[in-house]
From TrEMBL:
This is Peroxidase. Heme b binds at residue 194. Belongs to the peroxidase family. Ascorbate peroxidase subfamily. It catalyses: 2 a phenolic donor + H2O2 = 2 a phenolic radical donor + 2 H2O.
């Protein structure tokens, strides 16, 4: 057998050994207590610094959990950059010009690689960082289950097909969440994540000026709030201009639900939760009781965090790229650094 063929076989053997061939992971709290005991402190520390540097960034990172977990499970796939042979999820309809603060995840990964190289997955980073974003902005704190692997691929097409439009009505959202075994309660509680962060004028132009092709605004918008939105998002606005998603965008609280009751929801997908009977009762409940909101939100985040792809994975060294073939060979640190930036 020629050496090149032997080499190829060897490479594949090594990859097989390195890629965990599991269809179901046993996620559990304290997963890194032996292999990287500082992991959760490190993540929270970087998130604290991100919050001080740019308050919105922690909301932007929190959104990653939704966009990661809904598209083929919580596997860090949305963090992969496009390659010549793979269209990743960053440019998908819901993510392009919208998902942001990828650099915060890079910073977390870098800190973790320094402390315990090759141990903590990017998928778990998203889960820990999302929890931290909520806890650091005044929301609940909770124990997360860990032990996820990072995907070997990403799918722009799947992201396009799955992620909901800001124009979605409650029926569409209920159906979508149901596909992931998430209840109507989970849908409303998880939408409460819009208690922090901002959205672009782009996401509400139709709602303000031509709801369902009527040439009129969405009648569910409170008239005073509508005038405010006309000023913030005039017809000729740069549609990347952002507006806060609730009236206390730096604070994780139940103000979002109070705003919905007052007709002050930003997106169609927000206000629809109040206008639709099956979701309305939860909006009312959470608008009156922050404790109930926090309790159900945590439950929803845990359920969403358990979604899995059943596909093989790895612990990525750089969250933006799949480990290359050379990373699976025993090579010096010099080579590893270089190969990190190439794709296979
Ligand atoms: C129920 C269906 C949902 C829809 C249709 C939706 C849609 C959107 C849209 C359109 C934006 C603004 C994007 C832009 O204009 O660039 C946004 C922002 C955001 N979403 Fe959602 N979302 C949903 C559920 C969720 C869930 C479940 C989470 C997290 C658990 C989440 C977290 C966030 C956060 C934190 C922001 C603000 C991000 C920032 O400031 O950068 N969303 N969402
Ligand atoms: C919700 O939106 C879907 C998809 O756009 C549409 O088919 C359906 O008729 C809408 N449902 C209601 C109650 O408006
Ligand atoms: C939803 O639950 C059913 C029954 O427990 C299970 O077979 C299915 O795989 C679950 N779907 C998802 C997306 O987790
Ligand atoms: C509103 O939308 C309808 C249907 O999509 C379209 O025919 C109409 O030209 C739009 N009107 C304006 C003012 O953009
Ligand atoms: C927002 O900014 C991006 C990047 O600068 C640009 O490509 C895009 O066209 C802008 N989007 C809108 C809706 O103006």
């Amino acid at each position: 057998m020629p050496t090149s063929q032997l080499m190829t076989m060897l490479v594949f053997l090594i990859i097989l050994v390195h890629i965990a061939l599991v269809s179901s992971l046993n996620l559990r709290p304290g997963y890194y207590s032996e292999t990287c005991p500082e992991a959760e402190f490190i993540v929270r520390d970087v998130m604290k610094r991100a919050l001080m540097r740019e308050p919105r960034s922690v909301a932007s990172v929190m959104r990653f959990q939704f966009h990661d977990c809904f598209v083929n499970g919580c596997d860090g796939s949305m963090l992969l950059d496009d390659t010549p042979t793979m269209l990743g999820e960053k440019l998908s309809l819901s993510n392009i010009n919208s998902l942001r603060s990828y650099e915060v995840v890079d910073e977390i990964k870098e800190a973790l690689e320094k402390a315990c190289p090759g141990v903590v997955s990017c998928a778990d980073i998203i889960i820990m960082a999302s929890r931290d974003a909520v806890a650091l902005t005044g929301g609940p704190d909770w124990e997360v289950r860990l032990g996820r692997l990072d995907s070997l691929t990403a799918s722009q097409e799947d992201a396009d097909n799955i992620m909901p439009s800001p124009r979605a009505n409650a029926t569409t959202l209920i159906d979508l969440f149901h596909r992931f075994n998430l209840s109507i309660k989970d849908l409303v509680a998880l939408s409460g994540s819009h208690s922090i962060g901002e959205g672009r004028c782009f996401s509400i132009m139709f709602r303000l000026y031509n709801q369902s092709g009527t040439g009129k605004p969405d009648p569910a918008i409170n008239p005073i709030f509508r005038e405010e939105l006309y000023k913030r998002c005039p017809l000729d606005v740069d549609q990347n201009t952002t507006v806060e998603l609730d009236s206390t965008p730096r604070l994780f609280d139940n103000q979002y639900f109070k705003d919905l009751v007052a007709g002050r929801g930003f997106l169609n997908s927000d206000e629809t939760l109040f206008t639709f009977p099956l979701t309305k009762k939860f909006v009312k409940l959470y608008s009156k009781g922050q404790d109930e909101f926090f309790r159900d939100f945590v439950e929803g985040m845990l359920k969403m965090g358990d979604l899995q792809s059943g596909q093989p994975g790895e612990i990525r060294r750089n969250c933006r790229v799949v480990n290359s073939v050379a990373d699976h060979l025993v090579v010096g640190p010099q080579h590893r650094m270089e190969s990190n930036h190439k794709s296979i």
